Amino acid sequence: MAKIAALGAYFYQAALAFGLLIVLSHVLPPAEFAAYSLFVSIVQFAGIACFEWLRFACNRFYPGPDDQSERSEREAIVAEFLVSAILCPLGALAALAWGISAPVALVGALATVLQSAGELHLTLLRFQQAFRLFSWLQGLRATIFASATLGSAAVSADFDHVVLGILIANFVYSAIAWLATRRLLPLNPRWNKAAARRHLAYGGISAGASVASLFAPLGLKAVLTTALSPAGAAAPMLALDLLQRLFVLIVSSLQAIRYPELVSLFDRSGEGPAMRQELGHYYALLAAFSLITVAGLMALLGPAAELAVPEELRASFLRTAPLLIIMALLRALTQTLLPTPAHLRRHLPAIAWLAAGDCVATCAGALLAVWFYPGSDVAIAAGAAAGASVAIIGGSALLRLVAFSLPWQPVVLSGVAAVVSFACIRWFAGTPLLASASALAATLLFGGPACLALLRWVAR
User: What is the pLDDT of residue 241?
Assistant: First the structure.
């Protein structure tokens, strides 16, 4: 149940973040909200640039095959974090050249360090299998951030007060997290040259692959805007943003819960029967839950569009969303499921080539669609989905790196739910209510039993 609670903590955090964004967009004046959005984006990018490599290294090398390795890895990771933290003030100095004021640059650097420290700390907890404590801190962190940010905006609806709330939230959470885990995770930094070299090599390539995967949606947006004009691209871009975010949330949450146990088992036991079974269950979880998500999205697409999508965008949204759902499914699996054996074996070239191939194939598919069917939003979405399918077919060769035993039943049931749900919204397109009802029935009929089996695997 601790792992189910951890999964719930991820969804709670996502719901609060989404709600916070909506509230702030209504509370803050447009110019102030734009400044806040830019500040958050800069902090996120700075966190990736300075600390993403270390988070990836932690994912792979901590805790290690024994207690001594666990302690030395943690000490090295903390030392490396402190060294990386020095880069943030340097980045703040560089930001001054772009016209950003010194106070904002300094606050941004401080927020980057504190937020990255919190994320790395939670990663350490996950890999120690301390899921109860992780769930509590994850939920508390989301609550503190939402409360402090909204409280500051209530005092004064401007950029300065919102940023002050973010900073206060970071300090408060950091203090609570340290007090709650000071015995479980003693943070004693100790520089280890060999570990730093190993962490930087693996973490740098993995972080680069993560950044490369971000270029695919950016490239697709550029294709849409160029081919359809900004106004014509608005609906498919809205679908792309919403659907990609949902898939990333689901897949990354499952990965965060199950991957630590997988790494520990591989490092401590090698490729025995237990590893093959655990790896097969992990693949089944990612694939089946993703397919159930596809089925559910297809079923709810029509009603959701009626409620949330402006009328002038709705027709294009409904035309392109099913294809973009398929693209999001394929890319989510390419980014998480396929590179797992390469991460376990630390096969760095495979990790880099897979990420680059996914980005190039997805964007190339969209460009080819523009060439053959200029001005068609459906063709661009279909081309992107086709490109993503090429990437996942080519990348599937990586699964041979580590043997696994896949339990097929939940994957097949989830696949049937997705296919039938998609067919229903196509067959009954003229009757939206019947289309949604039949697709939802198929999702529950085929996906329900699979979902129950998958949740039991998560909980054990």
Answer: 76
Residue 68 CB-density burial (10 A; 0-12 exposed, 13-18 middle, 19+ buried): exposed
- Kindly list the distances between the CA atom of residue 184 and the CA atoms of 76, 124, 181, 208, 275, in Å, as whole numbers in the listed order: 17, 10, 5, 31, 27
CA atoms within 13 A on the CB side of 412: 4
Question: Residues near 362 by Cβ (< 8 Å), separated by ≥ 6?
Answer: 216, 219, 220, 327, 331, 384, 387, 388, 391
Q: How far apart are CA 6 and CA 459, in angstroms?
A: 10
On whether the CB atoms of residues 350 and 339 are closer than 8 A, the answer is yes
Convert the pLDDT of each residue in 95-145 to its tens digit: 666 666 777 778 888 888 999 999 999 988 888 878 888 889 999 999 999
Amino acid (one-letter) located at 150:
L
Nearest to 76 by CA among 181, 197, 196: 196
**What does the alpha-carbon distance between residue 348 and residue 203 come to, in Å, rounded to a whole number?**
10
pLDDT band for position 91 (50/70/90)? low
HSE-CB for 47 with a 13 A CA cutoff: 20
CA distance 368 to 107: 44
pLDDT surpassing 70 at residue 94: no
- Contact (CB, 8 A) for 323 and 389: no
The answer to whether the CB of 150 falls within 8 A of the CB of 19 is no
- Gap between the Cα atoms of 154 and 41, Å rounded: 22
Rounded Cα–Cα distance for residues 457 and 459 (Å): 5
Query: What is the percentage of the chain residues whose pLDDT exceeds 90?
Result: 26
Question: pLDDT value at position 412?
Answer: 92
Q: Which residue's entry shows tokens 């160029």?
A: 226
* Close Cβ partners of 94 (under 8 Å, ≥ 6 residues apart): none
Half-sphere exposure for 382 (CA within 13 Å, toward CB) = 11
CA–CA distance, 436 with 425 (Å, rounded to integer): 7
Q: What is the pLDDT of residue 96?
A: 65
Spatial separation of the C-alpha atoms in residues 127 and 125, rounded to whole Å: 5
